[in-house]
Amino acid sequence: MWQIYQFPLCPFSRKVRLLLAEKGVAYELIRENPWEHRDEFGKLNPAGRTPVLHNPEKQITLIDSRAICEYFEETVDKAPMINGTAAGRAEIRRLVAMFDENFFAAVTQPLLEERMKKRLVYRQSPDSRVLRDAMRLANDHLYYIDYLIDNRPWLAGSTMSLADLTAAAQISVADYLGGIDWSLHEQAASWYSVFKSRPSFRPLLTERMDVIQPPAHYADVNA
Questions:
Q1: What is the C-alpha to C-alpha distance for residues 149 and 186, in angstroms, rounded to an integer?
Q2: How many CB atoms lie within 10 A of CB 1?
Q3: What's the order of all strands across the beta sheet hosting 52-55?
């Protein structure tokens, strides 16, 4: 069985877990706090980042969420998530990159730093200015999702794809940390509520990060 080294609020691990669940691939979760810099984890991934997938029986170790997702796209036929025409696949990959890079850098990473890492690791208070900036930029991304859903059933086209899984994974972490205001984003909220109701997503909604609690609406599939 595959082992996933991750921590509950790692958005890249969440993306991989969503993909594996949609494809019906069994896995075991192994808690890994990358900021602890464990030597054993460093041997699996010298970069010290989650997720890492390890299969002891096959002696395979996979690193980097995009590489991991591409591996399972190539090896598991069920529920393809990078499909369609060449142009359609390019659009999926564009949106995956946008949420993995732009959304993470502007929204998820600052929220993790201020509301998780400062509390658990540094025992410091969050910087309210950084939080306001992250929430403002989250709002900008939600407007773009509103636009996409106005013109497509799913973010990249007519079917659910890795673009949707990637965006939902990043947004779920930001939502857990109180960085999302859904009030002005009916289309984005409707799209996200579909994910909250999927069997692949439900385990994420039940997990908690140590002493950090999410807002009341976080696990409500109707919110």
A1: 10
A2: 9
A3: 27-31, 2-6, 52-55, 60-63
Return the pLDDT at 53: 98
Token pair, residue 43, equals 């041997």
Q: How many Å is the Cα radius of gyration of the chain?
A: 17
Tell me, what amino acid is at 200?
Answer: S
**Closest among 193, 183, 169, 170 to 17, alpha carbons compared:** 169
The pLDDT tens digits of the residues spanning 51-78 come to 999 999 999 999 999 999 999 999 999 9
* 35 in Cβ contact with 61 (< 8 Å): no
* Other beta carbons less than 10 A from residue 205's beta carbon: 16
Contacts of 9 (CB under 8 A, 6+ apart): 112, 116, 173, 176, 177, 209, 212
Q: Is the pLDDT of residue 223 over 80?
A: no
| 206 residue type, one letter | T
Q: What does the alpha-carbon distance between residue 65 and residue 52 come to, in Å, rounded to a whole number?
A: 8
Three-point CA angle 167, 111, 66, nearest 5°: 35
Alpha-carbon span 196 to 192, nearest angstrom: 6
pTM over 0.85: yes
